[in-house]
Amino acid sequence: MLGIVLCGGQSLRMGTDKGLLNHQDKLWGQVAADKLGSLDLPVKFSVNPLQQSTYTGYFGNERLIVDDPSLDVRGPLLGVLSAHLSNPEEDLFLLACDILLMETRLLEKLMHSAKADDSFGAYIFTKDDQQEPLCGIYKSEGLKSIIFMLQNDTLVKHSMKYVLGNLRVCEIAVEDQDYRYFGNFNSHAEINGL
Q1: Least confident piece of the model among 2-16, 23-37, 90-104, 127-141
Q2: Best exposed site among 80, 106, 122, 133 by fewest CB in 10 Å?
């Protein structure tokens, strides 16, 4: 299994690259990488081509997965499928860099679920019955089926939730006291209280 920190978004509302913002003297991308790394996973950073040179300076080019230009998709799915194509036999443990407060114990809960029953295509949390697709484990076989759908023009939407609708998903309901750990930060106003 490979840890993937999703950093390739446009950061339009933030106005600056979220993966390179600082939190307690660490880059957001590094905060997420450390959490995935604590699960004894090798970790790579999913970036878009415009980010490659900057991220190479921080993390080294060998730790980057740059969006695959052959894929006609946008959004987080582009990063996920690019990571899959460059590591087709690896299951992927995704964590978006802007889910800043995620706790390692919750990531461990996902890992435990995947080890306890490996028959699912994805393992994710749900909050208020809504899926949280950017913190989850995606099995290589499930991602192969999504690539197949894309190649055959049957992947009619490119949202992560649509992708999950085409996989057998293990859902873990987030307990009320853990809701705050799933917030993603999109603007300076949201991070001022940290």
Answers
A1: 2-16
A2: 106
**127 pairs with which residues across the strands?**
130
Helix axes 52-59, 28-37, angle to 10 degrees: 50
CATH number where 123 lies:
3.90.550.10
Instruction: Look at residues 80, 35, 33, 82 and name the one whose alpha carbon lies nearest to residue 60.
Output: 33
Contact 98/112 with Cβ under 8 angstroms?
A: no
* One-letter amino acid for residue 151 of the chain: Q
Percent of the chain with pLDDT over 90: 80
Question: Do 55 and 45 touch, CB atoms closer than 8 A?
Answer: yes
Residues 44, 28: Cα–Cα separation, whole Å: 14
Instruction: Provide the residue range defining the domain that includes 60.
Output: 2-191
Inter-residue contact 19 to 57 (CB < 8 Å): no
CA angle at residue 74 from 53 to 38, to 5 degrees? Answer: 60
Q: Is 48 exposed, middle or buried (0-12, 13-18, 19+ CB in 10 A)?
A: middle
Give the C-alpha separation, 72 to 75, whole Å.
11
Cα gap 102→139, rounded to integer Å:
21
In total, how many domains does the chain have? Answer: 1
Burial of 130 by CB count in 10 Å (0-12 exposed, 13-18 middle, 19+ buried)? Answer: exposed
